[in-house]
Write a structure and sequence with these properties.
Layout lengths: L6 H7 L49 H14 L3 E5 L2 H12 L5 E5 L4 H10 L6 E5 L4 H7 L4 E7 L11 H10 L3 E5 L17 E5 L13 E5 L1 H14 L6 H12 L1 H20 L4 E5 L9 H7 L6 E6 L3 H11 L4 E2 L9 E6 H9 L3 H11 L2 E6 L5 H12 L1
Parallel strand pairs: 2-3, 2-4, 4-5, 5-6, 10-11
Antiparallel strand pairs: 1-7, 6-7, 8-9, 9-12, 11-12
Helix pairs in contact: 1-2, 2-8, 3-7, 4-12, 11-14
């Protein structure tokens, strides 16, 4: 597919196979687990997997997943991609592929809770040390680097407080220290940020969120250089086994077809909601990268082309009681976990719980998180409903 095409066009056409009479305009999912082969075509061991090997078994590769991977690579400007059964499967495979006993991982101190817990609870069992650092501060990243740091992993915008990391600055620091940089760009999507163009070595997505977009499919992906992705396929995918189901790959492909217009509407609705919440007497603060009120708005404007549809707000007081009130009174917005769906979702994340169970921050890092989040944040994934209806629903529920 020609690189000169715009991202919205690539999202629809980058994964297409050769056009010929009788070929479907919209590809159907190929669900087969096994494919015709020949003794000369492929070895029985994944360690012998050669470049451009034919499909053999769906845990190794699949035509539907292949189409999805080609589309994601095109959108991110990468050479190749590998798809996984979930975003956590993608992150876990990348970490275990790039890190070994004796290595050190630097990780955003605000990130998806499951990733923070993986780094602190599971990686040390394999002899891999992990340090959570404020990656919004390049100087802190540089100070935290060790001679054995092999990977720096950042999430930007970071879940749940939408804190940003300057990808280009951190990439330069990581590379100068002999480390690689991976970026979880789930919230930004390829229409918001292209981390590879800013110097990252890998981009990670939870396809479950905006890319699938309908709340009906789990999935994950890593995008990067062809050689690194081939190695990740052999070890992180085939041997760890977190293969993406072909039907879920097709659902993500379907989601990609509408990602451009969906992200435009998600962003537009988030802009309206942020303006409403910022003036509400019960709201302490609102965090959304597209707003001039966001403390890193200048970086957002420089690094993001779309500010996404996720925002967070905190209450002046009584956050727990307000969460219960919203869960009971919301009629259009759903009180539910996750983000990036067609329907609006809101969920309360108490600061004490997140710091205790997942982030485990102390001292200045804890104080910085509390400064952003207060007692807790109401993570609000703005959906595709009419903005006036969303505002009216919030108004009546907040009281």
């Amino acid at each position: 597919m020609a690189e000169k095409l715009a991202p919205a066009t690539l999202a629809l056409h980058a994964g297409e196979t050769e056009r010929r009479p009788g070929a479907p305009v919209t590809a159907s999912p190929q669900l087969a687990a096994s494919f015709f082969t020949h003794p000369d075509a492929i070895g029985f061991s994944a360690n012998d997997l050669a470049e451009n090997a034919p499909h053999f078994y769906t845990r190794w590769s699949n035509p539907t997943a292949d189409s999805l991977e080609r589309t994601l690579a095109a959108l991110e400007g990468g050479e190749a991609a590998v798809s996984f059964a979930s975003g956590m499967a993608a992150v876990s495979a990348l970490f275990l592929d790039r890190l070994a006993a004796g290595d050190h991982l630097l990780l955003s101190d605000v990130c998806y809770a499951g990733v923070a817990e993986l780094a602190q609870d599971i990686l040390p069992r394999h002899g891999i040390a992990a340090t959570l650092v404020d990656t919004a501060d390049p100087a802190a990243v540089e100070a935290a680097l060790r001679p054995n740091t092999r990977l720096v992993h950042v999430e930007t915008p970071a879940n749940p407080i939408l804190k940003l990391t300057d990808i280009a600055a951190v990439a330069a620091i990581a590379h100068a220290g002999g480390a690689e940089l991976s970026v979880d760009s789930t919230i930004a999507t390829p229409f918001g940020t292209r981390p590879l163009a800013l110097g990252a070595d890998y981009v990670v997505h939870s396809l479950t969120k905006y890319i699938s977009g309908h709340g009906d499919a789990l999935g994950g992906a890593v995008i990067g250089g062809a050689a690194r992705m081939a190695a990740l396929r052999r070890q992180g995918l085939i041997h760890l086994g977190g293969a993406l189901a072909p039907f879920n790959a097709w659902l993500s492909l379907r989601g990609l077809e509408t990602l451009a217009p969906r992200m435009a509407l998600h962003e537009a609705n988030a802009r309206r909601l942020e303006a409403f919440l910022a003036e509400h007497p019960k709201v302490r603060s609102v965090l959304w990268p597209g707003s001039p009120r966001h403390p890193q708005h200048a970086l957002a404007r420089r690094q993001m082309r779309n500010f996404s549809g996720l925002l967070a707000f905190s209450a002046r007081s009584g956050s727990g009681a307000l969460a219960a009130r919203l869960a009971e009174r919301l009629r259009v917005i759903s009180y539910a976990v996750s983000l990036g769906k067609t329907k609006s979702l809101l969920f309360y994340i108490p600061t004490d719980d997140l710091l205790r169970a997942s982030f485990r921050l102390r001292g200045a890092q804890e104080a910085a998180y509390r400064d952003w989040a207060g007692e807790g944040v109401f993570r609000f994934s703005a959906g595709l409903e009419d903005a006036d209806d969303l505002i009216a629903d919030l108004a009546q529920a907040l009281g």
